[in-house]
Amino acid sequence: MLSPDQFVETHRPAGGRRSGKRDFIVHVFLRQNGHLSADELVSIIRAEDARISRATIYRTIQWMVEAGIARRVDFGDGKIRFEHAYRHPRHFHLLCKNCQQSFEFLSSDIEAHLEDVCAARRFSASQTVLQVYGMCDACQAGLPPAPPSVPLEMVFARDALRVAIATEQSGLAFYTRATKLARDPRGKKVFARLAEEEKEHLSTLQTRYRELVAQHPDVESQPPFLFFKSASRGLFAGGVDELAADGVDDREALRIGIRCERESHRFFKKYGERLDESEGKRIFLEFADEERQHFELLVREFRSLVARSRVPPARGKRRAAGR
Amino acid sequence: MLSPDQFVETHRPAGGRRSGKRDFIVHVFLRQNGHLSADELVSIIRAEDARISRATIYRTIQWMVEAGIARRVDFGDGKIRFEHAYRHPRHFHLLCKNCQQSFEFLSSDIEAHLEDVCAARRFSASQTVLQVYGMCDACQAGLPPAPPSVPLEMVFARDALRVAIATEQSGLAFYTRATKLARDPRGKKVFARLAEEEKEHLSTLQTRYRELVAQHPDVESQPPFLFFKSASRGLFAGGVDELAADGVDDREALRIGIRCERESHRFFKKYGERLDESEGKRIFLEFADEERQHFELLVREFRSLVARSRVPPARGKRRAAGR
DNA sequence: ATAGATGCAAACCCTTTGCACATTA
DNA sequence: TAATGTGCAAAGGGTTTGCATCTAT
Question: How far is A133 from chain B (nearest CA, A)?
């Protein structure tokens, strides 16, 4: 886990020279939470003590944006705001026109659809802006705006854990079923081993989840940050359904498993890479790696099965070999 | 179909007074295609002849926005652009950073996910901004930018027709199957009648589609404007799958039909209402109405079936009545 | 010594406004 | 004639920039 200073160092472009004022501005900026306009940052800097010129602050903001430390956010009210990227994944916004508060979210489903749209146009996307304007819960009810009681990072870690757990659960169900179903003893063993691994990893994740809740008791009552409807049943859920069909043999089960592991690997890798340094990123990338290993194991197993069923005396599953 | 002038008249707010200059600006604005900045509109107006002050143009743009004739579009480059709403549904944008061209699209899937997100936060949405920045097809290939050869309206009508046709096809499959499956003669008749209606309407829609293609031969080669993955198999596709399961009786089939018709009605109504005056809107609203009628017919039928199965000598389907 | 950072004030860009004048109902 | 629209120029706000002055390497 990077400290704010480390975060800045990893982003500092080569060739410039250090300056105390710039460091001070960056430092103050990273301590802020919401979306600051340049002017707001000026006020904060002035209040924090230093007398730094407006121009320097504008220039430093630009420097941070180029370095990837800050992101421009445009809410369409004439002034540009900035949010820092430290432990803060890219996201979309809900904006309350009444209290001006903003709420952040991420949706893998929406992103997947956007990818479809771009593919249909052969458009190569580099950045997406998605803002929903309206009125927030509290304002509709006439209540005062309530600042979030839990850091966003924790909510995000919670959601990442939830997807991971759902996926492990569906994976466990898949391999348990596949173990029962398998006829080839070697395949059975592989499935059993994977089921065992999923079980272990599942309990690790659940422990991690419990620890998170213990540390931040309010985290469970927070609304979701990461939306992943299509993955909410776990990325193996479809595979489990397929196993239920008639006539699924070892080979077919392996194929389904391979597909699920690949999808799962891609999903977690994609989101893990897209995230900035954070607890959520680590969970996703660890997971992606695990899925890749499973994927490779299954592929090896599949090849071995094919080889065995082709060369030695057949064991009654010839038909598929010709295709 | 409204003419531009009629469109303006339906939007003109009460209480103001007419002015030749304003009418002229509005008229010129409605003839434009893309997204104009105030300054660009000034140049066009100046070129078109009239010498109208910048301030008047700014004020007229504001007037058009308030009247719902123009919509603000902010691409985050410091100047606000405007697009007119005449035969132009609200949409999202792909923006090419290289050639500055913009491409428009609509996605019912993304909108559905956004509704989920808002619901989870109890956020009441009033407006959504969705822009994807990147590089377009032509710019990636090093080709000159190609303006669209078919008016957007036609592409939209094409896509609306496609959803409608897919839905009719799945509806036809549903009712054909349900007719075969039904045991109650009266229910059978209702399903058969609906199958017949779907068939007729399907051929009407297909004719309409062919006419559209005949009028605008290029329309089929255009990339999609309206994305509707979840509805692309037709809104009855899920219902057809359900009919395939074991133990589906008349009552169950009616229930599934009712659900599909209701969903379908809602889908088309929602999109129809959201659209501005256009061919697409008409298709959607006609369709929504049709689905509502089917829905009501099925509900009546369901009630009648329940009444008959409860009061007179039973016909072997008691079990469900108790629940 | 020299490229880079800072401060100040002026310039910039887009947009809105105050006020006198013109137009419409 | 009374309310509304127009023109002009000036003001407004957020942001960038030219230039002289510092400061880190």
Answer: 5
Rounded Cα gap, residues A128 and A144, in angstroms: 31
What is the mean predicted confidence (pLDDT) over A227-233?
90
Residue whose C-alpha is closest to residue B32's, from B75, B73, B67: B73
Which residue type is seen at B127? Q
Alpha helices in chain B (DSSP H): 4-11, 20-31, 38-48, 54-67, 108-121, 137-140, 152-181, 185-215, 237-243, 250-274, 279-310
Pairing of strands B124-135, A124-135: antiparallel
Dihedral over alpha carbons B240, B244, B248, B252 (to 10 degrees): -10
Other CB atoms within 10 A of residue A304 CB:
15
Q: How far are the Cα atoms of A153, A163, A207, A233, A279 from residue A212, in angstroms, in the given order?
A: 11, 15, 9, 22, 11
Burial A257-292 (b: 16+ CB within 10 A, else e): bbbbbbbbbebbbbbbeebbbbbbbebbbbbbebbb
Distance between the alpha carbon (CA) of B279 and the C1' atom of C24, Å: 37
Angstrom CA distances, A74 to A36, A37, B30, B77, B123, stand at 11, 10, 28, 10, 20
pLDDT of residue B322: 42
pLDDT one-digit tens code per residue, A266-288: 999 988 887 777 777 888 899 99
Residue B126 has its nearest CB partner, among A128, A129, A134, at A134
Instruction: Report the C-alpha gap between A68 and A66 in whole angstroms.
Output: 5
Residue A30 · residue A4 · CB < 8 Å: yes
What's the rounded Cα separation, in Å, for the pair A260 and A179?
16
Q: Which long-range contacts (CB under 8 A, 24 or more apart) does A110-119 make?
A: A110/A227, A110/B110, A110/B113, A110/B114, A112/A230, A113/B107, A113/B109, A113/B110, A113/B113, A113/B227, A113/B229, A114/B110, A114/B132, A116/B227, A116/B229, A117/B94, A117/B105, A117/B107, A117/B132, A117/B227, A118/B94, A118/B132, A118/B134
Q: Do A136 and A145 meet the contact criterion of CB atoms below 8 Å apart?
A: yes
Helices (H), chain A: 4-11, 20-31, 38-48, 54-67, 108-121, 137-140, 152-181, 185-215, 237-243, 250-274, 279-310
> Residue B228: which of B131, B150, B162 has the closest Cα?
B162
Mean pLDDT throughout B218-234?
Answer: 92
d(CA B307, CA B319): 14
Say whether A126 and B133 touch across the interface (CB within 8 A). yes
Under 8 Å between Cβ of B64 and B29? yes
Q: How far is A79 from chain B (nearest CA, A)?
A: 9
Determine, for residues A116 and B229 on separate chains, whether the beta-carbon distance falls below 8 Å.
Answer: yes
3-state class (DSSP) for residue A50: coil
Bridge partners for A9 per DSSP: none
Cα–Cα dist A82/B36, whole Å: 27
DSSP A186-208: HHHHHHHHHHHHHHHHHHHHHHH
Residue at A137: amino acid letter: D
Q: Give tens-digit pLDDT for A32-71.
A: 988 999 999 999 999 988 889 999 999 999 999 999 999 9
CB atoms B103 and A118 under 8 Å: no
Cβ-based neighbours of B267, under 8 Å, separated by 6 or more: B108, B231, B235, B288
Footprint of strand D on the protein (CB under 7 A): A 17-20, 37-39, 54-55, 58-59, 62, 78-80; B 15-17, 19-22, 51-56, 59-60
- Cross-strand bridge partners of residue B102: B95
